[in-house]
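I had to read the description of the data format several times before I understood it. In essence, backbone conformation is discretised, so a fold becomes a row of integers matching the chain in length. I therefore recommend that a typical entry be quoted early in the introduction. For illustration, here is how one protein appears when written out as sequence plus structure tokens.

***
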Amino acid sequence: VRNPVSEELQKIEEDEISLMMNSLYALHDKLAQVAGEHECGSSIQRNLTVQEAAAYLKNLDPEYESVLNTALQWILNSGEDVGIKCLSNDPNEMDVTNVTDVKYLESTSPKMSFRCRFRRAFVNVTHRLSILLLGIAMVWGVLHYMKYRWAKEEEETRQMYDMVVKIIDVLRSHSEACSENKDLQPYMPILHVHDSLIPPQERKKMRKVWNRAVDFLAANESRVRTETRRIGGAEFLVWKWMQPSAACDKILVIPSKVWQGQAFHLDRRNSPPNSLTPCLKIRNMFDPVMEIGDHWHLAIQEAILEKCSDNDGIVHIAVDKNSREGCVYVKCLSPEYAGKAFKALHGSWFDGKLVTVKYLRLDRYHHRFPQALTCNTPLKPSNKHMNSMSHLRLRTGTTNSQGSS
């Protein structure tokens, strides 16, 4: 209780000051004990009525009861926190100004035991820690879900490109068969191609991949034309492989191990906005079954360096000769160089195959190729002839000559 030295006390007889102070101290301690028991959960009552407070003081000293009203009036007039709060019956009435309106007395500083304080602190810390852990779990869950969605989208995109390659192979093979057997129709129903490429048990799971592959062919593949044909009395959408004319055969003859142009333009859907890591995994660069000799992988490395001839950041290339997906791994000096290589390679046609690229974590790259740890010298093509780019130069030159004529 604050020492009540004020103008109001100067009007009180000196012998009553000591008596009032003692009663306030006693009342303060009692109210602090009651409030502390309530905070610790051992009592449902947090305050005392004026009658209960008067009875308590009377038990301590009958003279205390006689100065209670004077003490309460001083508390109301002081307007400061003296450790005792006066309350009325009306919970909405914040400030009580008249002693006759005071019905309850309450401590503003509960007195609690060490055990109670420790328990309350433990509960408080545990509650806040639980909220923090819950927040961390939610953030982790969101990040994990986003990572899952990105991985799923990347996998679906890879499957879509693989499906495009399979569809083109089927249509090209059918076109070659038609040239040998004139009884065959020069087109294939799209549903027939779908059913021949996707087993029945996988058709529901691969529906989205198939639809994306169909849309991709319609938007990006000029050699495949979609038509409507009547077959067996019903109309079907069919694909027809557009065979190049004889006049263009010499121009369109594509030697092996050459870059054959871009299949599609890169955008947000098929290219990350930022370079993620300095390492890349390139698919569909070769077919291990079709490769001959012991040094064929060198031609693959040379083709990549020629395609990225303006990139001074490639320091390591590894060809997985046993990969059924035709995988080649590339490490660059920085993610920026890797992003430049990604844009040069992803979505390109190479040796009749659609090349796709994804980023690979640096630690996984070094785990698979420990020798790449010390590689920091940029690689360059072994010669200036740029053989793998010859078809692109031929096609560009032909286009320019046609434009000039």
Notes: Residues 7-112 form one domain.
